[in-house]
Amino acid sequence: MDEVLLQNAVDRYLRMEMTQQERLVFEELRRTNPEVDQLVVAHSFFLQELERFGQLKEFKSTLNTVEAELLEEGAIKPERLTAGARVSNMWIRYRRTIAVAACIGGITAVCISGMMLAIAPKHDARLMELANKVNSVENSQRVLRQQLNEVTKTITPSPAELKVSGTSFLIDGRGYLVTSAHVVKDVSSVFVANHKGDNFKARIIFVNPLQDLAILKIEDSNWTTSGPLPYGIKRTGAELGEPIFTLGYPRNYAEIVYGEGYLSAQTGYNGDSISCQITVSANPGNSGGPVLNEKGEVVGILSTKQPQTDGVVFALNARNIYSALDSLKKDTTNTYPTIRVSSVSTIRSLDRVDQIKKIEDCVYMVKGY
């Protein structure tokens, strides 16, 4: 039993299967017991030779396969040998294999001898001490797992309640997004999610309730910058009757939805001059999403839907993003670097499907808790 235990411990040690505590105990035994240390060295060399032998066999099998294929194709002819020549040829071909096998046999004998020496009665005490420590660690881990399972059964954590959801889009590839102010109103924490379902922690850095505009900053170690944005933020408004399209998350989960329509009025609700009216299908989750023209330019931020009227939606003009950034620059408490916004669209020559493929990576769902 001691022999099996020691051999198993050496094998687990060399294969890096021990826990950190087991490894520390075993290394202490190696340091204080030269016979065990020699056994580990011999066993390690033995395993290396076995691996080399396996690689040699695999290489010879590959050569045999290639030879068979060449014979089948007629590229080479089989070599016919006399009886005496066959024996000589076999020795020449397999003498390395025979030598490796003999070497492995010798190493095996050395390992067995080392094991017998290491488990001699004079070292039984150390061996049993190692076994007891290993068993003690395993028992402790088993007890901890049982206790953790019991705690898990008794605790039923209540997940944070999702208060509101909406849409946002990047205005700077370093993680700055724009959304509607009412989307993040009265929330204590904000997360954003892309169309792949990846969630990232975000922070509110600017809010203008009068214009219903907010700026967020992704602050998550798992998020990487996206580089230059495919669309531009237009400084002037859209023309009456101009076709537009939207992307957003009206379904409360990370599936982006496309909508299309046209600019139906150049003013918003009750003649509001900072907004415009668009005719497009939209739901509350679309709030904060981009409104784009055929050139892939952002012309507005989808804001509110006229009550009891289907398809009549209001959007804040995109030029208000620039005024919000000016206000942010003047804020003495702002510690963020200057946000760089481009007005140039690089997707104006693409068709609608390809435009969406470029834009959807920059549109995020907003989750307020």
TrEMBL record:
SUPFAM superfamilies: Trypsin-like serine proteases (SSF50494). The chain crosses the membrane at residues 98-120. Pfam families: Trypsin_2. One of its GO terms (molecular function) is serine-type endopeptidase activity. Keywords: Hydrolase, Membrane, Protease, Transmembrane, Transmembrane helix. One of its GO terms (biological process) is proteolysis. PANTHER family: PEPTIDASE S12, PROTEASE DO-LIKE 8, CHLOROPLASTIC. Belongs to the peptidase S1C family. This is S1-C subfamily serine protease. It comes from Dinghuibacter silviterrae.
